Amino acid sequence: MTHKKQNLPEKICVSCRRQFVWRKKWERVWDEVKYCSDRCRRAKKKAKTEVGESAVDNSIVNESER
Ligand SMILES: [Zn+2]
User: Fold this and answer.
1) What is the predicted pLDDT for the residue at 32?
2) Contact at 8 Å (CB) between 36 and 16?
3) How many whole angstroms from 43 Cα to the centroid of ligand 1?
4) Using an 8 Å Cβ cutoff, are 60 and 37 in contact?
5) How far is the CA of 39 from the centre of ligand 1 (A)?
6) Which of 8, 14, 27, 52 pairs as cysteine with 22 (C-beta 3.0–4.6 A)?
7) Using one digit for the tens of pLDDT, what is the confidence trace for 8-64?
8) How far is the CA of 22 from the centre of ligand 1 (A)?
9) Contact 59, 19 (CB under 8 A)
10) Cβ neighbours around 59 below 10 Å, total
11) CA of 9: how far to CAs of 22, 31, 33, 38, in Å?
């Protein structure tokens, strides 16, 4: 499943709790990146710190990205 070509840094999205890897577009802000996507960032703004009734959709998993 996980074909690791490179040793890219990884983080856990604080919104959806999924693991995501470093991307080129984050190279300057990686320290500040907390979300796997803009979508999660926005979703998190609504919900506060606690895990509420966040609608977690598992339908969108972008795992085949080479
Ligand atoms: Zn996320």
Assistant:
1) 95
2) yes
3) 9
4) no
5) 7
6) 8
7) 999 999 999 999 999 999 999 999 999 999 999 998 766 555 454 444 554 455 555
8) 13
9) no
10) 5
11) 5, 11, 12, 19
Could you give the CA distance from residue 47 to residue 57 in angstroms, rounded to a whole number? 15
Nearest to 17 by CA among 38, 39, 40: 40
Q: How far is the CA of 61 from the centre of ligand 1 (A)?
A: 10
Helix (H, G, I), strand (E, B) or coil at 12: strand
The pair of three-digit structure tokens given for residue 60, joined into one six-digit string: 């969108």
In whole angstroms, how far apart are CA 60 and each of 29, 37, 42, 43, 46?
24, 12, 16, 15, 20
Output the pLDDT for position 44.
72
Which pTM value belongs to this model? 0.56
- Which residue has better confidence, 1 or 53? 1
